[in-house]
Amino acid sequence: MDAPSVRHAKYDALIARCKGLDPVRTAVVHPCDAASLESAVEAGAAGIILPILVGPEAKIRRIAQENNIDISALSIVPAPYSHAAATRAVDMVRAGEAAALMRGSLHTDELMAAVVCRSAGIRTVRRVSHVFIMDVPTYPKLLFITDAAVNIAPTLEEKVDIVANAIELAQALGVERPKVAILSAVETVSAKIPSTIDAAALCKMAERGQIKGGILDGPLAFDNAISREAAQAKGIISPVAGDADILLVPDMEAGNMLAKELTFLANADAAGIVLGARVPIILTSRADSVRARMASCAVAAIYAHARSVLASGLPAE
């Protein structure tokens, strides 16, 4: 594997890229704790997003006052409780009043229920999925892990969309042809391990043009996906092995554990967004560092601008 990168350099580069972009109008859903409110204010002060606070106004102002958070320059769209805030924020997206969503102190499931509502949500033909964008000190580039937060046990068809979402995100962040490692416990196809069957099918689908924009290989164990030495020791000849950009995990449990292991054992930072809806959805955690929260906003802003450029038919700058 290549030499380790300078810690935080990859996130700092993402945040710096936003300096040349207009801030993205972002509906911040139910920011009713200090961490979520401060995250929105910090990203707004950095010019990454233009936060619009959606939730119970009196409670938001009280939290801001108690924690010395200045929200005097921000708009508040009143909503009496968390479910109403999620519905109102989604309505804002549908009306073109917001180009991104940001989770506040409500649970992810509550926000996503409003997003995927068949009658009034912001679904697209693509399945909604989550991507962690990891800044791992011992890995030379950003590492995308999907899906670790939304799809519990995705089917083959759902994995097609999960991969497509991650490829599109990586391209928006400057990875021209992302390398996708489809993870399992082994490197060979076995009928006894369903994830290896899915991996083989996904690779063939990519060969036939059903999945575009990336280079897929799998099944690969984690070590072979990120270490050239491990791949060589196993005799694996692959453009992806040892140099993966995207790790497609077999299920949410594996992805969640992998991301948290990298965070707490390898000192990695984990930014996260949800894709597949009309706009990117920023998911931050109270355990996130300030830099990780800012990076999540930066990723969403860069992605939103890239999508806007594609929709307009104009070339990117």
Could you tell me the CATH topology label of the largest domain.
Rossmann fold
Low-confidence stretches: 312-317
The largest sheet has its strands arranged as 3-2-1-4-11-10-5-6-9-7-8
Q: N- to C-terminal separation?
A: 32 Å
CATH C-level class of the largest domain is Alpha Beta
Based on Cα principal axes, name the global outline: globular
Q: On the 0-100 scale, what is the average pLDDT?
A: 92
Just name the CATH architecture of the largest domain.
3-Layer(aba) Sandwich
Largest sheet: 11 strands, mixed
| Class based on secondary structure composition and strand pairing | alpha/beta
Order of helices and strands: HEHEHEHEHEEHEHEHHEHEEH
In total, the number of domains comes to 2
Number of H/I helices = 11
